[in-house]
Amino acid sequence: MKKNYNPPPQIFDAAFLLIVAAEGGEKVSDDPRDPGGLTKWGICQRSYPDLDIRALTESDAREIYRRDYWDACKCDELPWPLSLYVFDAAINQGVSAAARMLQEAADVTVDGKIGPKTLAAAKSHPEWRAVRFMALRAMRYSQTKNFDRFGMGWLTRIFALAQEV
């Protein structure tokens, strides 16, 4: 396991680029078996029903990711790569699920609200917390509807992400 847990200088930008690559970038997807529906830059119509997904720009996607996922999970306050893993989980599994998995990985009360206790615990033993968080993600995916259809892709995504850092 790599021991470099220092964030890159532009931590959100680095995380955004990794996530957008995993999400397929500007390619539009409309798989009828995907409950998210029409998707571009990883932003799906189901989550943003009033948004013109086909016209979505990279800048628009960056703003949505920062506001609705990165900031919502206080990723600026988490050690790298845990911040990246929580960010990706918020996007792909939901903000509430990401917060709860973070709390479980940090061994604090699981209430879905990332506060000072969660952040402090996440910063203690960051390597262990990051590995435990990813294991919890994999376990949660295995219990998700459509795992038989998308499970290999979901698990490949989290292992590839871990390998990137």
UniProtKB/TrEMBL annotation:
Domain (Peptidoglycan binding): residue spans on this chain: 98-156
Matching SUPFAM superfamilies: Lysozyme-like
A Pfam family the protein falls into: Glyco_hydro_108
Domain TtsA-like Glycoside hydrolase family positions: 19-94
Protein name: Uncharacterized protein
Organism: Alkalidesulfovibrio alkalitolerans DSM 16529
Organism classification: Bacteria, Pseudomonadati, Thermodesulfobacteriota, Desulfovibrionia, Desulfovibrionales
